[in-house]
Write a structure and sequence with these properties.
The structure is a homohexamer of 158-residue chains. By secondary structure, the first copy, chain A, is an alpha+beta fold. The first copy, chain A, is 29% helix and 30% strand. The longest helix of chain A is centred in the last third of the chain and has 19 residues.
């Protein structure tokens, strides 16, 4: 395991990691987030007669995954071959899980995290008139595979 | 307090709230997030000889605040007159607090939340080679003022 | 009525119209488009069990309205106070109608047109595996009001 | 031929098609659109002494092709190796034809359509002070080749 | 005159200047740049039979002015009411001059500079196959007016 | 060496070069720029107690390199595998040098130039309250390698 931040050179200056020599490989990552809200707001989310608010959040998350390299300064641009966000209502809010794939020289962890982060913010936006105390927690990587550093996997407690 | 989601019309179709008739007012919002990491990673964040990784995260958060309306589908575009992100190292990670201002017909809660969310993701990006289990929690609104719905304030436990 | 293109100066060079001296006024515009598809595809659009494909198209149109000044080179940036796209299934396809509002020095015709254009393209994208011959027609301004040039209104035949 | 929308999973939730397993292949697509305007406006388009308004429309269309994945929510990002828009004046307006190429796992139909759509909107923008009744019609795919679904070709009537 | 950088707070942390309390005023800025190229390339720029390469550069500069706040991290977003770039062929290359206007709480110097910078890069792009030694010099502010700091004006030597 | 501009077809219409048939190769480019400022401003740049203003400029340059195809109308989108900007204080200002890499069908000269251009503008932005006469000069390509046209190299005089 490295002991220093990969985005800093030996003089301590910020840098983008050079992935020019890394081979293009199939890569996958998944992340999750939990949007905690009170019972009244969660109920309103369900009462919507026609459109499904969670579908809007999913769309926003997918779109954000595609734009991750614009948001995170030292992220490499990547061509995503797949991006998805799943949203499911739980007892105290909404759980979001993303899945992102590419074939490229570096991984898609940041894309997976950006997808759930923006999906969660979109749920906040739609519910904020009812409840400003909504909280986003457990925003974290669930899994990544592909690439030299191998597979990482954590268990979701959500 | 409203009982239904403001972003849905009476037929249940998603909509952008019409703020055409709302007066331009000074508005402020503040949000926070907590980036939890292990002691070894936190130490590496400090060992950096010259540049300050937290400054990069702050910049990324400020830039994200300016682009919130591109990320959140039903957000109104606003001209921010100020956006800031403060980052401070705590016992078990980094605490981020944003402050955003505008003069306009609607508030800047989403901009404040987007700022800390993207700043937190940027810290994850810089530290991920050391620790993939970093977790973002307590992403939430601290305060908003201005506008018809008045002032909201919660106490930070961070 | 002017006899020359407003986006060209007297020497024939392209230019952005200078609206510095124009007062900020409430402005509104509405546009429509017709997405013509065969009966089989239209039926598939309805068979979708849960999400509503037309909601995705509406969201894409609203997002495009907000980014019109990035797409159309000589368009002025404007802060939209409202943007909406309505989609309704008709005998031979889908009719899209947009409504956009701002308070500013120039009108929102291009935003209204961009909204229905991108909503229509999004419907094409979702249906293209079933039918590549889908055609977008009648993409046109329905109404604009506000500003020195007054109100324009055409009757929709859709 | 598929019977269901490819952008929806079996539960009816919107999704981006997973193209991770599809090989990178040379792909081409072409689309067209017709901008119908009255004789007086068409004449003004010609009277411009120096710059050519149609060149601006062509540039806007090429730029839009490059940004298609930002506009259409479920479109995959692709690296275009070529994008062109041809504009020719006809009896009752302007005909636009695009040609787009890539080497990748999925096709460029949406890029070809986005290019002519935005080029057509740009012509509207430049002429709107003269004529607000300009109408965009026949926005449709002319041809696509490459990929598993083979070649599609329709005859242009423009 | 201030003695310290306005974009840093007293602790030395980067910041966006807070312009919330500044009144909206009419503001103008103008900048210039010189694209130096050899005689053979300059001649090719003229030999182009139909389109005018300098018009493309002008369009790119105008579009860049509108997106300045996305490029420069601490720049405030502003609604430009006018942006123009003039290009004229001189003995040893091309001179570019921009003019940008807004009504807002802060000035448009960066927008004026971004416009000529991107216009100059666009000329480089179009000519680079002929001459890679093209050089951009004298990229600088010519004039700014409006706002508390008053009017600045320098003489162009180009 | 070609005699005509590569971005124009034989009829003189602007075009994007078709690189569909060019093989993906490792490509590198480097560019430089000089930000000239007076002694007082240069001293203030150094006096900053904590953050390093030059790090912000470097970040802005790296981000701009990633977005070059959005800024320059006829540039091909490319997936950068590396982008860096080095900033060093010299006697009369700051020298910026970029290095950009990709594996693709066309080169990264424009990305290297865009990186130093935007980094230079960011320095201007941070110093402009102290000195509006700051000038950007010597913005030019230092080196490019890879691709059919081979290696180009110029000596820096900075």
């Amino acid at each position: 395991m490295p002991q220093t931040l990969s985005h800093y050179d030996t003089a301590g200056r910020v840098r983008m990691v050079d992935v020019s020599a890394k081979p293009a490989m199939a890569r996958h990552a998944s992340a999750e987030a939990h949007v905690k809200m009170n019972a009244r707001t969660l109920k309103a989310l369900h009462r919507n007669p026609k459109g499904d608010p969670l579908e809007i959040a999913r769309i926003a998350g997918i779109a954000a995954a595609k734009r991750t390299a614009e948001l995170i300064p030292l992220c490499h641009p990547l061509l995503l071959t797949h991006a998805d966000v799943e949203a499911r209502v739980v007892r105290d809010g909404v759980c979001l899980t993303s899945a992102v794939r590419t074939t490229g020289p570096t991984g898609v962890e940041m894309e997976a995290l950006a997808a759930v982060a923006v999906a969660a913010l979109t749920i906040y936006d739609m519910c904020k008139a009812l409840d400003r105390s909504i909280e986003i927690t457990n925003l974290r990587l669930l899994e990544k595979s592909g690439g030299k550093s191998g597979t990482y996997r954590r268990r979701s407690d959500l």
